[in-house]
Amino acid sequence: MRAAIFSGPGAVEVGERPDPVIQEPTDAVVRVVLGCVCGSDLWYYRGESPHAVGSIGHEFIGVVEQVGADVRGVRPGDLVVAPFIYSDMSCPHCLNGSTISCPVGGNFGNGTVDGGQGEAVRVPLAGSTLVPVPGSGHPDTVLRSLLALSDVMSTGHHVAAVAGVKKGDTVAVVGDGAVGLCAVLASKRLGAERVVALSRHADRQEIAREFGATDVIEARGEAATEAVLELTGGIGADAALECVGTEQSIATAFAVARPGSTVGIVGVPHGQVPFVETFFRNTGWRGGPAPARIYIPELLGDVLDGVINPGRVFDYETDLDHIADAYLAMDERRAIKSLVRIGEV
Ligand SMILES: [Zn+2]
Questions:
Q1: How many angstroms is it from 105 CA to the middle of ligand 1?
Q2: 158 close to 298: Cβ distance less than 8 angstroms
Q3: Tell me, what DSSP letter sits at residue 19?
Q4: Starting at the edge strand that comes first in sequence, how are the strands of the sheet with 54-55 ordered?
């Protein structure tokens, strides 16, 4: 089959990988319909994080082609959403909501395991990993939003959920990448009354407003902090959501969070939490990689009902032959998030 191959920083091209086959009775083979490029794929692309040579891409939706003898819950012909990691959903860690910690789980597109940026994927633990989509004949806008549940929207929901966003809250979202935009949408969905998006880009501000941002702040650093404090009468946000992971964005998130609140963090940390200051402000933090498999079923219902449209974050589209362009467009910040159209439903 054809699939994106990571061969080093700056080098992702379409190549050949072995056709996936059932190896374990808990496997399924899924033919990929849509895949996409994640912000975290860019770290590998830019050489900022190591990645094994081989398969890449961990977000996809597709159609089940074949299942092993022990797979329950999905059948050939099902349209399925894959969370970005596979897991058994029965171990203590999965049951406690940390699927990333599943001892038998793993990552798609890690060089060895098939990735979502390819024609097909052997999905381990398929019955507990894949989420079947009810109905048929879904329009393309719905398919794009289903793809977003694989990672970006589940991560946006996670950061809002762990920060305890609830009805009537004022939320500040630090970061206007695809995850930050989805965090705006998730906050609105959870009932936030005021959602303040920190964004300096017109195209991203537009999506943030569509997703429910009531205020947009263009400033950065201390000026951004002052602006959020001014909007909240000097109190700070009920929930600050950190969706970048840089030293500055982490500092901003903690500075705009009101005393007694919880900061949500999903940007992979490249900075430190201000421990002593947060102690004296009774501020906590929670976050980490999203247990997407746990969130997908509830978010799926809202996508199918037209309540949320997270697929709006895909503003660049190409096919597997042009996978290099999908990376380049994001690397050069011409695209918020690149969609890769691979097959038909
Ligand atoms: Zn587990």
A1: 6
A2: no
A3: P
A4: 11-16, 2-8, 54-55
For 137, counting Cβ atoms within 10 Å of its Cβ (0-12 exposed, 13-18 middle, 19+ buried), the class is exposed
Distance CA 90, CA 343 (A): 32
DSSP for 85-146, written as a single string: EE--S-SHHHHTT-GGG-TT-EETTSSSS--SSBSEEEETTHHHH-EEPPSS---HHHHHHH
Distance 194 CA to ligand 1 centre (A): 36
Angle formed at CA 225 by CA 222 and CA 231, multiple of 5 degrees? 145
Separation of 128 CA from ligand 1 center, angstroms?
9
Cα 93 to ligand 1 centre (Å): 6
* CA 123 centroid distance within chain: 19
pLDDT, tens digit, for every residue of 54-102? 999 999 999 999 999 999 999 999 999 999 999 999 999 999 999 999 9
Q: What percent of the chain has pLDDT over 90?
A: 95
**How many Å lie between the centroid of ligand 1 and the Cα of residue 5?**
28
pLDDT digits (tens, 9 = 90+) for 295-316: 999 999 999 999 999 999 999 9
Q: What is the DSSP letter of 333?
A: T
* DSSP bridge pairs for 55: 5
- 108 CA distance to ligand 1 centroid (A)? 15
Distance CA 327, CA 322 (A): 9
Question: Is the pTM for the entire model greater than 0.85?
Answer: yes
For residues 174 and 165, give the distance between their C-alpha atoms in angstroms, rounded to a whole number: 15
Distance 11 CA to ligand 1 centre (A): 33
What are the respective helix, strand and coil percentages of the chain, to the nearest 5? 35, 25, 40
317: Cα within 13 Å, side-chain hemisphere: 11
Distance in Å, CA 69 to ligand 1 centroid: 20
